[in-house]
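Checked the freezer inventory, then went back to the computational side. Two predictions to log before the end of the day. The first one is the construct we discussed on Monday; recording sequence and C-alpha cells without edits.
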Amino acid sequence: MMQKPLLIIGNKNYSSWSLRAWLLLKAFNVDFDEQLIELFDASARPILEAHSPTGKVPVLVYGEGDEKVTVWDTLAIAMHVNEYFTDINIWTGIKKSVTNAQTDHQNRINSAYCQSIIAEMHSGLSGIRNEMPMNIRATAKIHPSEVCLSDIARIEAIFADCLKGRSEDSYLFGHFTAADVFFAPVVLRLQTYADASNITLQPLTKQYCQTMLNNPHIKTWIQAALQETRIIEEDEAGEIVSLSGVLSAK
C-alpha cells in the first residue's frame, strides 16, 4: 500500500500556489496529510531544506530513504497526481475508465484547452498576480494598471468561452477539472479587489466566481484562512477597506 503523501503548504490567506495543490488533492479524492509552514519565517527553513529543492511551497512528498518521491511546482504536482493518485482524469473531470469513440474526441478537445489555459495561468498573467496578491480576509482598493486590466479581460474571455451554453452553476468544462483548480485564486483575488476598485466584471464571470465560492473545499480553505492572524507585508496591496475573520475584531 502506497504511503499517504504529505503536502507542505504556506499561509492559507496568502499562498495561491498552495491553494492550487491542496484543492487539486481534495477535489480528486487523494487522501493526504498537510503541513502548513509560515511563509518568510525562520521556522519554515528546516522543513523546506528537508523537502523542497527550490525552498518554496507547495511540495508533495511520500516514501522514505531511497524510495522517497518529491514533487515540487504545482503544475508538476497536478501531472503526478493525475498519473498516480486518482482514477479521474484531472483535465476532463471524467473517470479514466469511461471512454468511447463518441466522447473521446470531445474529451481530447477539452483536455487540450484545459491544459493550455492552465499553462497560460501558470506562466503568465503577471499583471493580476503582481497587483492583486491573494489576500482572502481583505477587501481592498487598488488602482489597476492597463496590464492588470488586460489580464482580467483575458481571464473573462477564457471563462466566457468555456462556459458558453453551460448551466448557471457549471464549472469551466462542466465537470470540475484542474482548470478550476488553477483559476481558483483568481476568483479569490477578484473577490478581494474588483468591487472595491470599481472593476466591472461580466455577469458570466460573477456567476462562475459564485459557483467556485460555493465549492465545499474552497469554503473549507477560506474558513481556515480567516482564522489566521499573521500579516505578511509582502502580500498586502492597496487600501484595505475591510477585513473578515479573526483580525476583523481587532
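The second is the one RB wanted added to the comparison set:
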Amino acid sequence: MWPFPSSGPTGLFTSLLARLPSQCAVCRAWPSRPVCDACVARFAPPVSRCSGCALRLPEGVGRCGECVKSPPPLDACLAACTYAWPWPDAIAAFKFRGEAGWAGPFATLLRSAPWVEPALEASDIVLPMPLAPGRLRERGFNQSHELVRRVAPSKADAGLLLRTRETTAQSGLSRADRLRNLRGAFAVEPLRAHELRGRRIVLVDDVMTSGASLFAAAGVLREAGAAHITGIVLARTDPPR
C-alpha cells in the first residue's frame, strides 16, 4: 500500500482511496499501483553512482573526478532514479501542476532505493529542501516536505533549515555561477541551531541537476555543527551515455 496520511476524515478517505486499484501511470496496466512494480524495476533500476554527488558512474568506481578534486559538503548522496522518461513528466505534475498525490508513490520509490532505508534509520533529523516564501505560495506546498513527511514522519522537521531569499533560475548557468547564485540563500533557524550539533542529518530534495542547491544547503548545516549529512534525491540528471 502506498503511504498516504491517515489522520482525520480527509486522511482516512485518502488512505481508503489509495487501496483502490488503478492504472499504472506509465504502462497503463490495470489493476495496478500509481506506478507498477514492473515499471519501477524497468525505469528505476539500481545503478552505480558517485558517493558524493550521485552522478551515474561505471560499475566499481566510487567517486567522480569532480568530487575527488573538490569534495562536496555531503558525506553521502543517494538517488532513486535517473531524471529521464517517464519521471520528468510525473515530477512536473507533482511540483508544478499541484498533483500532490504523487508524493506517496514517489516516497515509496525513494525508500526502495539502495541504502536509503539505512540512511533514514541512522539519521537523527530529516530535512526537506526549503522553498522561498514566494515559491511556496505559488505552488501551495513544498514537494520535498511532502516526501519527507512520508519517508520519515517521526524525524521530519520543516522549520530548521530556511530559504532566506529567492534566486534567479539556475538553468543555463555554469556550476560556479549556480554556486554564486545560491550564496546566502539558506540559513539555519537561529534559535534552533544548537539542535544540529553532532547530529546525523538527511537532506531530501526532488531533483538534483548540478548539486549546487543541495551543496549550498548542506554547507550551512555543516557550519552549524552537523556531524554527518546524507543527501537523498528522487531523481538525478545524468550526462548522455
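For RB: Residues 1-17 have pLDDT under 50 and may be disordered. The longest strand covers residues 200-208. Let me know if you want it refolded.
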